[in-house]
Automatic annotation (TrEMBL):
It comes from the Bacteria. PANTHER family: NORD PROTEIN. Transmembrane segments: none annotated. InterPro entries: NorD/CobT (IPR051928), vWFA_dom_sf (IPR036465). This is VWFA domain-containing protein.
Length: 562
C-alpha cells in the first residue's frame, strides 16, 4: 500500500492522502495514470464526482472503468512524456492483461470494455458489439485535459448508455457555475484564494472550470520548474519552503545536527525546521494551510464545552499523579507569566522581574514533548489530532509544565520539523497546534532520534515523550521512475524501518526518557507498533480518547516512582 501511494505521489507531486483503488487496479501503470490524472485534472472535483455519482451505484465498477479508460485515453501520452519510465509499467500491464484474457472470458461490462479497449495494443481483434462499440469509439475520441470537459463527457456518456444520471445538474446550471468561478478568478495565477469559490457550490455541482483548475496547477508547476526537479537537480529547498514554510534556525547548527543524527539509513537526509510562516503570503500552499487551520478550529469550536471539560479532567489527573508529591511555589522572574500589577517596576526601576514562574521540589521539574506524525495517512483525522494535542498541551501548560509540541513528515530528501510551541512559550502559543496538517511520508526512527537529541540537552529532571503515529514508518525514495532525480537517500520501508524506529525508542528510554507510543493506524499494523514500543503503547480507534490515554500513562509512571 505504501509503495502504491508513493507512485501516485511522485507523479502527481501532490503528497496528500489518496485512494489508490480509484481505477479498480493497483498495478504500477494504473497508479501512474492516477498520479498524472491528479496532476492534470482537479482532484477534488473528480473525487466528489466519484463519491456522489459513481460509488453509490450498484454498477459502480462499470462506471469506474469508463472513467478510467476516458482519463487514460486523454493522459497516456502526457504520462509517457513526463515520466518515460512508465512505458515499462504499461508493457508489464499489457502482459498481465494478455495472460488474463487468454484463460478467462469477460464476466461483466467493465471486463468487456477493458478487453476491447486494449485489443489493439495486444494485436488482438476487437470483440465487442452494439452500444459498447459505440461507447468505446466515443472514449477513444476524447482527449481533453479540462476537468469540466471530462466530467461533462462522463455525465453525458452515463446518461446516454445507462440512464442512471437523472440527478446530475443540467448543462445550464453547470455553465452558470463555471461563469461564477470565472468571474471570481484572481488575475495573478500565483494567487489562489480558496475562499473565493464556495465549497457548497463545488459539492452541489461536482464540476469545476478548467480555468480555475489551471490557476492552481500553474502555481504547482512554477514551484516545480523553479526547483528544476526534472533536470535532476538535488537541491529541493525552494519547493520545500514553498510548500511548508521558510526555514528557521542557523544553517551551521542545522548542519551540525544533521551530521550527528542523519547517519546510517538516514544518511543524506536534510532537516527543515519551520514554524509554518510563508515568504509568499498569497501562495497556493499558504491558502491551503489557512483553510486546514480554519477547519481544525471550527471543529474544536463546534464542541468547545466538551473539549474544555476534557482539559480540566486531564489537568486534575496530572495534579494527582506526576505532581502529587511536588511542593509547588511561585517566584518572581524575568520570564514566565506576566504579572500586570508589577509592570510599573520595570518602568521606574532596574527591577525586570515582572513575571512569575512556578517551581516544584521533591521529584524535580518536568518536561513533556509531544511528537506528532504528520504524514499523509493523518489527513483523514488531522482535525482530531490537532484537537487532542491542544487539549494535552492546555492541561500541561496550565500547570506550568514545560511543554513542546512538534510534528514531522518527509518530503523528497527532507524531514520537515514543525514547532507549534516550545518549553518556555506563552500558553497562548497552544493555538498554533490547530495548524496541524498531514502530507508526505514518515521516517519515525529519525524523528525520534532527533527529538531525543533535543530532549537530552534540556536540564529537566523528569522527561516525558508522547509519540502519536500510524505505526507504519515508511519513506520510499527510489521508485525506479526515469526522470525522477536520485535523492541519494536509502528507502525506509518494512522491517528495516520498524527495527530502526524500535532502536530509537530504546535509546530514548535508556537515556531516562519516559516514552509512550499512541497508535492511530490500522489493526493490521498493530504488531508493528508492539515491536516498536513494547508494553508502553496504547491503541486507540477513537482519537477523542487520546488525552485520556495520556492521563493513564502519567498515572502509571507516577505509581512506579512513588
Amino acid at each position: 500500500m505504501s509503495r502504491n501511494k508513493n507512485i501516485v505521489w511522485t507523479i502527481s507531486e501532490d503528497y496528500s492522502d489518496v485512494n489508490t483503488n480509484s481505477f479498480l487496479s493497483e498495478t504500477p501503470y494504473k497508479l501512474a495514470l492516477l498520479g498524472i490524472s491528479h496532476k492534470l485534472y482537479n482532484k477534488f472535483a473528480i473525487e466528489k464526482f466519484l463519491s456522489f455519482h459513481i460509488n453509490s451505484k450498484t454498477n459502480y465498477k462499470d462506471l469506474k472503468m469508463i472513467m478510467a479508460l476516458a482519463i487514460e485515453n486523454a493522459t497516456r501520452e502526457k504520462l509517457f512524456e513526463f515520466r518515460p519510465g512508465t512505458v515499462d509499467f504499461f508493457e508489464e500491464f499489457l502482459k498481465s492483461l494478455k495472460h488474463k484474457y487468454e484463460f478467462l472470458e469477460p464476466t461483466s461490462i467493465s471486463e468487456e470494455l477493458e478487453r476491447a479497449y486494449y485489443s489493439s495494443f495486444l494485436n488482438k481483434p476487437r470483440i465487442v458489439n452494439g452500444s459498447l462499440e459505440e461507447m468505446l469509439n466515443e472514449i477513444e475520441n476524447f482527449h481533453s485535459l479540462g476537468t469540466y470537459e471530462l466530467l461533462n463527457f462522463l455525465k453525458n456518456l452515463y446518461q446516454k448508455y445507462f440512464h442512471v444520471y437523472d440527478t446530475m445538474p443540467t448543462t445550464d446550471k453547470v455553465e452558470k457555475f463555471i461563469e461564477k468561478v470565472k468571474s471570481k478568478q484572481i488575475i495573478n495565477p500565483m494567487v489562489v484564494n480558496v475562499k473565493e469559490v464556495e465549497i457548497s457550490d463545488l459539492e452541489k455541482f461536482n464540476i469545476e472550470s478548467a480555468e480555475f483548475t489551471q490557476s492552481i496547477y500553474e502555481d504547482l508547476k512554477e514551484v516545480i520548474d523553479k526547483s528544476n526537479i526534472k533536470s535532476g537537480a538535488k537541491d529541493y529547498s525552494a519547493i520545500v519552503e514553498r510548500r511548508y514554510g521558510k526555514s528557521i534556525g542557523r544553517p551551521n547548527e542545522i548542519k551540525k545536527l544533521e551530521s550527528e543524527i542523519c547517519t546510517g539509513i538516514h544518511e543524506n537526509v536534510k532537516l527543515h525546521f519551520t514554524n509554518g510562516e510563508y515568504t509568499m503570503k498569497d501562495s497556493f500552499f499558504k491558502a491551503q494551510a489557512d483553510e486546514v487551520h480554519t477547519k481544525n478550529l471550527e471543529k474544536y469550536r463546534a464542541d468547545e464545552l466538551h473539549f474544555k471539560r476534557a482539559t480540566i479532567n486531564l489537568k486534575e489527573v496530572l495534579k494527582n499523579s506526576i505532581l502529587k508529591n511536588s511542593e509547588q511555589y511561585n517566584i518572581r522572574s524575568t520570564m514566565g507569566e506576566l504579572v500586570a500589577s508589577e509592570i510599573w517596576k520595570s518602568l521606574y526601576s532596574n527591577n525586570q522581574k515582572v513575571f512569575k514562574r512556578n517551581y516544584s521540589d521533591d521529584l524535580g521539574d518536568i518536561s513533556v514533548d509531544i511528537l506528532l506524525d504528520s504524514s499523509a495517512s493523518q489527513t483523514v483525522r488531522q482535525s482530531e489530532v490537532a484537537i487532542e494535542a491542544f487539549i494535552i498541551a492546555e492541561a500541561l501548560t496550565s500547570l506550568n509544565i514545560d511543554t513542546r509540541v512538534i510534528s514531522f513528515n518527509n518530503f523528497f530528501d527532507r524531514m520537515i520539523i514543525k514547532t507549534y510551541r516550545d518549553y518556555h512559550d506563552s500558553k497562548l502559543k497552544n493555538s498554533e497546534i490547530f495548524k496541524f496538517q498531514g502530507s508526505g511520508s514518515n521516517r519515525d526512527g529519525l524523528a525520534i532520534k532527533l527529538i531525543t537529541n533535543l530532549i537530552e540537552k534540556n536540564p529537566h529532571d523528569r522527561k516525558f515523550l508522547i509519540i502519536l503515529s500510524d505505526g507504519k514508518p515508511n519513506d520510499e525514495t527510489d521508485l525506479g521512475l526515469i526522470g525522477m532525480a536520485d535523492l541519494g537517500v536509502e528507502n525506509y520501508v518494512d522491517e528495516i524501518a520498524t527495527f530502526d524506529t524500535y532502536n530509537s525508542v530504546m535509546k530514548a528510554r535508556l537515556m531516562g526518557i519516559n516514552v509512550l507510543g499512541v497508535f492511530t493506524g490500522l489493526e493490521e499494523d498493530l504488531e508493528t507498533e508492539k515491536k516498536i514500543f513494547g508494553s508502553d503503547f496504547a491503541y486507540i480507534t477513537d482519537l477523542k480518547r487520546f488525552h485520556s490515554i495520556v492521563g493513564i500513562f502519567f498515572k502509571a509512571i507516577a505509581n512506579k516512582i512513588n
